[in-house]
Design brief:
This protein is of the alpha+beta class. It has 25 helices and eleven strands. Strand 8 and strand 9 form a beta hairpin. Helix 1 crosses helix 9, helix 12 crosses helix 22 and helix 15 packs antiparallel against helix 16.
Length: 742
C-alpha cells in the first residue's frame, strides 16, 4: 500500500498539470449537470416491510386517483374573543376563502368546515382541509402564494388564520453559520501551518471535492428521488473529511521536508505514509455510511450512499490533487518548524537558541499520560459516563408540526387545532380494512368500527368509507393524545391486535397507516436495526483495523472508545434537544423527542469519523514501535508528530459541523450539533487521553498478534516500512522514477 501510494504521490507531483486538469474538468462536468438537471421532486419516504407502508400501497391500488401522496393543507380559522365561527359574517368569510382555494389549478379538493363537521364544539375554531394533486415539494410557487393570499384575506376580515400541513414545506436553509465554520477552519489551518499557501491547499481541495459531490447529487436528485437533506449531509461530511485528509498529507509533507528530502520525494513519502492512513480512515467512513442500507429505509440508504461517495472523492483528491498542488506551491510551503512570516520566529530557531530541543505540547501531554495512565483512564471514562447519563432518558420520534418553532404558521395551526379539537386531532390514524377475502365486507367494516370505538384512548371514529368496488374501506380514528406520545403508540398497537381477531373471524385484514402510524413504524424499525447495524459496521471496521495495526487489542480498544464517545454525544443531544439545556444558545425553540434516526445515524457517522483520528494517531505510534522504539516511547513519539495535526483536524471538523446548527431544518440542526459534540468527546477525551493511557498500560501486549493470523493477514504497510527498506538499499530518485513508469 505505502509503496503504491508513494509512486502515485510522486507521479501526481510531476504530472501536476494533467492531474489538476482532470479534477477541474470533473468539477465543470458536475456543475453543468447540476445546472441542467430538472428540479428535484419530493423524495419518496417508503418503509418496506412495515404495516403502514403496506396500507399506503393498498390505498394507491384500491383508491386510484385519490392522490395518496399529494400535499395537504389545513387552513385553521379562529374567531375574535367573544365571537364564534358560526356567526354570519365569519361564515361568509370562510366560505369565500374555500371558494378561492378551490379555484387553484393543482387543488384536488377543498372541504368546507360547515358541511364537513370541522367546527369545534365551542364554535370558536374551524378548519378547511385542502388536498393537492402533487406533493409539497412539487407544488408551484403560484399555488403556495394563492394559499397564503387566501389566508391573508381572511385575516384582513378580522379572523386569526394559520396554515398547517406540508403544502408550505420549504427547502431547508443552513444559514450563515456554515460560512463561519469554514472561516474557523481557515484560521486553524493558518495557525497550524503558519502559511497562507499551506493553509489554503486543504480548503481548496475540500471545496472542489464537495463541489463535485454535491453537484453530482443535484444532477441525479430528480432521477434518484434524493431529498434536499441528502446534499446538506454530503456537504457537511465532505467538507469535514476533505479538509482533514488534506491536512494530514500536507502536514506529513512538511515533516518530510524538515528531514531534508527533496520536494518530489517528500510528496511521495507523505502520500505513501499519511496517505495510507487516509485510505483506511476513508474506508471506515464509507463502510459506516453504506452500512446504513441494512436499515432498509430507502431515504436513509440514499443519504448514506451519497455521503459515502463524497467521502470517496475526498480521499481521491487528497491522494492526487494535494501532491499536484504541492508541486505548484514549490518553496512557498515550508518545512515543519521553518521560519514563518505570519507567526514570526520558528520553533526550531527557538530550540537552537536555547541550546536544547524543546518538547512540544503533544510530547509533554503524552509523557504525562504514560506516567499516570490509570488516573487519566479513570478520569476520562468517568467523565464520558457522566455525559452519557441523559441518554438513559432518550425518547425517540419523528418531527411533526408540533416540533416546529412557535414563530411558524404551521406550529400555530397545530396549537389551534389542539385547542379546538384535542391534541390527537393533529395525528389522526387511518385504518384500512381489506375485505377482499371476506364473504361479508360490509359486516367486516362495521365490526372494525365497533372494535375501535371500544378501545381506550379513542376520541372519535368516522364511519367506514368504502371504495367503488366495495372491498376496501378507510376509517379515521382520532386519539385523545398527541401524535408523538407513548399513549398514541399504544393505541396503534391495540388497533392492530384487535385487527388480528377480526381477521380470524371475518377474513378481513385491518391495517393502520397515516403519518403518525408511519412515524411509529419508522422508530421501531430503526430501533430493531440498531444492534445488527452496530455489529456489521463495527465488525467490518474491526477486521480492517486488525489489518492496519496488526494487533487485536488496539482495534478492540478503538471500538470500545467509540462506544463511550457516541453514548456521551447522545447524552448531550438529549440534554439540549429533549431537556432544553442550553437550547437558547443552540437556537432550539421547541424541545421534544429526539429524531428516531439520530442514534443509528450517529453510530454510523461518528464511528467512521472517530477512526480518522485513531488511524492517523496510532499509525504514527505503530510506525515508531516497528522502527524499534519501546512501547511508551512510541506513544510519546506518535503524539510528538500527530497530536498537533489531530487537534487541528478535530477543531476544523467541529467547526464545520457546528456551522450547520444554524439550519432551519430541525433534523440538520440536531445532526450538526450531535456530530460536533461527538468529535469533541472522541478526539479530545478518547483519542487524546484514553487511547495513550490504555496503550501505556498494555505495553508490548498492545501490539500482540497470533503468529498464524500474522501470516494470514495481507501486509498493507501503512507505516511505510517498505519505503524505509528501499531507502536503506540505496534506491535513488532515478530508480524510483523507473518504478513509477512500470
Amino acid at each position: 500500500m505505502a509503496t503504491f501510494l508513494y509512486k502515485l504521490g510522486r507521479l501526481a507531483f510531476r504530472r501536476r498539470h494533467f492531474v489538476a486538469l482532470i479534477w477541474v474538468a470533473l468539477l465543470t462536468l458536475a456543475g453543468v449537470g447540476a445546472a441542467s438537471a430538472p428540479p428535484a421532486g419530493n423524495s419518496s419516504f417508503s418503509i418496506p416491510g412495515t404495516e403502514a407502508q403496506k396500507a399506503f400501497d393498498l390505498l394507491e391500488q384500491r383508491f386510484p386517483g385519490a392522490s395518496a401522496d399529494g400535499a395537504t393543507a389545513r387552513v385553521v380559522f379562529k374567531a375574535p374573543s367573544g365571537e364564534k365561527m358560526t356567526d354570519a359574517g365569519h361564515k361568509a368569510t370562510v366560505e369565500k376563502t374555500v371558494d378561492e382555494l378551490a379555484d387553484g389549478s393543482e387543488v384536488a379538493s377543498v372541504a368546507d368546515p360547515y358541511t364537513g363537521n370541522a367546527v369545534s364544539k365551542d364554535g370558536t375554531i374551524a378548519y378547511a382541509s385542502v388536498k393537492y394533486d402533487v406533493s409539497g415539494m412539487e407544488l408551484e410557487e403560484s399555488t403556495k402564494d394563492a394559499l397564503e393570499d387566501a389566508a391573508q384575506q381572511a385575516r384582513d376580515a378580522g379572523l386569526t388564520v394559520e396554515i398547517g400541513g406540508d403544502a408550505l414545506q420549504a427547502v431547508p436553509e443552513t444559514g450563515a453559520t456554515e460560512v463561519i465554520g469554514i472561516a474557523v477552519a481557515a484560521v486553524v489551518l493558518v495557525i497550524t501551518f503558519g502559511s497562507l499557501v499551506a493553509a489554503g491547499l486543504p480548503l481548496l481541495t475540500a471545496l472542489i471535492g464537495v463541489g463535485i459531490g454535491v453537484s453530482s447529487i443535484t444532477a441525479l436528485a430528480s432521477a434518484l428521488e434524493l431529498g434536499s437533506t441528502t446534499s446538506i449531509l454530503a456537504m457537511m461530511i465532505g467538507l469535514a473529511v476533505g479538509i482533514d485528509y488534506a491536512l494530514f498529507i500536507v502536514s506529513r509533507y512538511r515533516a518530510e521536508l524538515a528531514e531534508g528530502r527533496e520536494r518530489e520525494e517528500a510528496a511521495g513519502r507523505a502520500v505513501g505514509t499519511a496517505g495510507s492512513a487516509v485510505v483506511f480512515a476513508g474506508l471506515t467512513v464509507v463502510i459506516a455510511l453504506v452500512g446504513l442500507a441494512v436499515v432498509n429505509i430507502p431515504m436513509l440508504t440514499k443519504m448514506g450512499v451519497a455521503a459515502a461517495g463524497t467521502v470517496a472523492i475526498a480521499v481521491l483528491i487528497a491522494l492526487t490533487m494535494i501532491p499536484a498542488l504541492l508541486g505548484y506551491a514549490g518553496r512557498r510551503v515550508k518545512p515543519a518548524g521553518a521560519k514563518s512570516k505570519l507567526l514570526g520566529r520558528s520553533r526550531k530557531g527557538t530550540e537552537q537558541a536555547a541550546g536544547q530541543p524543546k518538547a512540544n505540547l503533544g510530547t509533554r501531554w503524552a509523557s504525562f499520560v504514560v506516567r499516570r495512565p490509570l488516573a487519566v483512564l479513570l478520569l476520562g471514562v468517568i467523565g464520558l459516563g457522566a455525559a452519557a447519563v441523559p441518554a438513559a432518558s432518550l425518547e425517540l420520534g419523528l418531527p411533526d408540526d408540533g416540533s416546529q418553532p412557535t414563530s411558524t404558521t404551521q406550529r400555530r395551526a397545530y396549537d389551534l387545532l389542539s385547542e379546538g379539537f384535542g391534541p390527537g386531532f393533529n395525528g389522526p390514524l387511518m385504518v384500512v380494512v381489506d375485505a377482499k377475502g371476506s364473504d361479508a365486507p360490509k359486516d367486516a367494516f362495521t365490526d372494525v368500527e365497533k372494535q375501535i370505538k371500544g378501545l381506550d384512548g379513542v376520541v372519535a371514529v368516522t364511519p367506514p368509507a368504502p371504495n367503488k368496488g366495495g372491498d376496501t374501506a378507510t376509517i379515521t380514528v382520532v386519539p385523545d393524545s398527541k401524535p408523538s406520545s407513548v399513549q398514541t403508540e399504544d393505541l396503534v398497537h391495540a388497533i392492530r391486535d384487535a385487527g388480528g381477531d377480526i381477521e380470524a373471524k371475518t377474513g378481513a385484514e385491518t391495517l393502520v397507516t397515516g403519518s403518525t402510524a408511519m412515524n411509529i413504524d419508522v422508530s421501531e424499525k430503526l430501533n430493531d436495526a440498531l444492534v445488527p447495524y452496530l455489529v456489521l459496521v463495527v465488525g467490518l471496521a474491526f477486521l480492517l483495523l486488525i489489518v492496519v495495526f496488526r494487533s487485536i487489542l488496539v482495534p478492540l480498544k478503538a471500538a470500545l472508545g467509540f462506544l463511550l464517545s457516541v453514548m456521551a454525544a447522545l447524552g448531550a443531544v438529549v440534554a439540549v434537544f429533549q431537556w432544553g439545556w442550553l437550547s437558547g444558545l443552540m437556537g432550539v425553540e421547541e424541545t421534544g423527542p429526539v429524531m428516531s434516526m439520530m442514534p443509528i445515524f450517529m453510530v454510523g457517522v461518528v464511528f467512521g469519523l472517530a477512526m480518522d483520528y485513531e488511524v492517523f494517531l496510532v499509525t504514527r505510534m505503530r510506525e515508531a514501535f516497528v522502527h524499534g522504539e519501546k512501547p511508551n516511547q512510541a506513544v510519546v513519539t506518535g503524539f510528538k508528530h500527530g497530536a498537533r495535526v489531530v487537534t487541528a483536524a478535530a477543531v476544523i471538523m467541529m467547526a464545520v459541523f457546528a456551522g450547520f446548527i444554524g439550519s432551519s431544518e430541525s433534523m440538520v440542526k440536531m445532526i450538526g450539533f450531535g456530530l460536533a459534540i461527538a468529535v469533541f468527546f472522541d478526539a479530545f477525551v478518547v483519542r487524546m487521553a484514553i487511547v495513550p493511557a490504555v496503550l501505556a498500560l498494555l505495553g508490548k501486549k498492545a501490539w500482540w498478534l497470533p503468529k498464524w493470523l500474522d501470516r494470514a493477514l495481507p501486509n498493507v504497510d501503512v507505516e511505510g516500512e517498505g519505503l524505509r527498506t528501499a531507502a536503506e538499499r540505496g534506491a535513488g530518485p532515478d530508480e524510483d522514477r523507473e518504478l513509477v513508469r512500470t
